[in-house]
Design goal:
Layout lengths: L2 H15 L6 H17 L4 H17 L8 H17 L14 E6 L6 H14 L4 E6 L6 H11 L4 E2 L7 H15 L3 E6 L7 H14 L3 E7 L4 H14 L3 E5 L8 H10 L3 E5 L7 E3 L2 H8 L5 H11 L2 H12 L5 H13 L3 H6 L4 H7 L6 H12 L3 H5 L6 H11 L3 H22 L13
Parallel strand pairs: 1-4, 1-5, 2-3, 2-4, 5-6, 6-7
Antiparallel strand pairs: 7-8
Length: 442
């Protein structure tokens, strides 16, 4: 996410920091590079120009060049200006005074609207709500079936009436059902088109008139850049859009849509989609995203993901095992599953301050396939072998390698590193100095 833009901005600020004392000409040169980086990231021309001018003015007003750490002060100004550009504060979904709350999602075909509806329903349920998803797209082939399959995979209820009933009637019937059956939220998956046309807009207006949604949420593909901004403007003019979901943010190395859309349209970004997984929908935090772009990390999101994955009792048990050096391969496997539930490893690394940039500079990439190999090796062991890896000798190692589709050398490497890890834990638990061990579990 924002890899290209982030690398260029961080490179600019590294050069600025290496100068020590800064002149105004140094800042002007750095801001010129920032503007070029924004333009290459497909940021709107006026937005990029206003952003750079705003930074320049605030650097002067704050007398940043006169401070003891001028480069850091300039970066702080850029960070604050970027937060304002993205929307300053988190914009949460509104709820109706009396249930059900209706969220009407709109957008073009291919933007990820149906998947976004499922993710939104899952998020609402986790928050204690009872959502009802509504298949109101009667035009796109298999659109109703797609929503049903995605929703049912997460045990979310769907209201559908096939493709012969007008969408506004389907939405109205779903609202009646929600009132009678105690649903707290109704999420409308409306029809999209390959491009905006009058028939689609008129239909969406009829659906909105019948259901009076609390939020009209536009789902746009972040990878389309300035096209996403143009689409948002057109939808907003007709439907008075109240919020945005930017999908495919995990695949957007440029970031032009996210950095332009709020400034140009005035519509707040509510959520960002960060993957295909049903739970890969994050509330949009302008300050956290600005920190990620500038290489300052996003520890708050990382902590929230960890808290949602690891319960307190399990954490205490694991801490005790580490302290007493009784951590087994079974424990390691369980921890590996929990870490995987937090999201892709590469994405997690990007949240650690400076880690993403350092990995890219050294051409280091997290290979998820290595985790698959480790899982396969451990799964090919018997429960007793996982608890007592010291008994795994020649014949057992050959059996495990054959069962996991790996080599004996791979099994040897895992066991060796785990043995080193256990020695390190024993030294730590006895108060001795930690030994230097290259690369835990590869």
């Amino acid at each position: 996410m924002f890899e290209s833009l982030s690398d260029k901005l961080q490179g600019t600020f590294r050069k600025l920091g290496s100068k020590g004392k800064l002149q105004e000409s140094d800042v002007d040169l750095a801001l010129r590079e920032v503007r070029i980086a924004l333009m290459e990231a497909d940021v709107n021309l006026k937005v990029a120009r206003d952003f750079v001018n705003g930074v320049r003015e605030k650097v002067r007003e704050s007398h940043a060049l006169e401070s003891l750490t001028p480069a850091q002060q300039v970066i702080q100004v850029v960070n604050q200006e970027m937060i304002e550009l993205l929307g300053s504060t988190e914009s949460k979904l509104e709820t109706a005074p009396t249930p059900p709350t209706v969220y009407m999602t709109v957008g073009l075909q291919g933007s990820g609207k149906t998947l976004a509806c499922t993710k939104l329903g899952l998020m609402i349920r986790r928050g204690g709500g009872k959502p009802l998803l509504v298949a109101a797209d009667v035009y796109r082939p298999a659109a109703v079936k797609q929503l049903e399959v995605l929703a049912h995979s997460q045990n979310l209820p769907v209201h559908s009436e096939g493709t012969s009933v007008p969408p506004e009637d389907i939405a109205s019937h779903a609202l009646d059902r929600a009132r009678s059956q105690g649903f707290t939220h109704v999420i409308l998956d409306t029809a999209g088109r390959l491009h905006i046309d009058e028939a689609m807009m008129a239909e969406l207006e009829r659906v909105k008139e019948r259901t009076h949604p609390t939020e009209t949420i536009l789902v746009v593909d972040a990878m389309t850049g300035q096209e996403a901004v143009r689409v948002a403007q057109q939808f907003h003019e007709r439907l008075d859009v109240t919020g945005l979901i930017l999908t495919k943010m995990d695949a957007d190395a440029r970031g032009g849509a996210a950095l332009s859309i709020r400034s140009v349209t005035g519509i707040p970004i509510k959520f960002v989609g960060t993957g295909e997984r049903p739970d890969a929908l994050e509330p949009f935090h302008p300050d956290r995203l600005a920190s990620r772009i500038l290489g300052l990390g996003d520890m708050l999101t990382l902590i929230e993901r960890a808290q949602a994955t690891f319960d307190e009792r399990s954490a205490r048990e694991m801490e005790n095992k580490l302290r007493t050096a009784s951590f087994t391969l079974e424990d390691f496997y369980n921890q590996l599953q929990m870490v995987k539930n937090m999201g892709p490893l590469q994405q997690l690394m990007e949240m650690i301050p400076g880690m993403g940039s350092a990995m890219r500079q050294q051409n280091v990439e997290v290979d998820e396939r290595e985790m698959v190999h480790i899982e396969a090796i451990i799964q090919s062991m018997t429960p007793y072998e996982r608890q007592h890896p010291e008994i795994i000798r020649g014949s057992r190692r050959r059996r495990i390698a054959a069962g996991s589709g790996t080599s004996v050398a791979d099994v040897n490497a895992l066991l060796h590193q785990f043995n080193q890890f256990q020695k390190m834990m024993k030294q730590l638990s006895s108060g001795k100095r930690m030994p230097k061990i290259p690369g835990l579990f590869g």
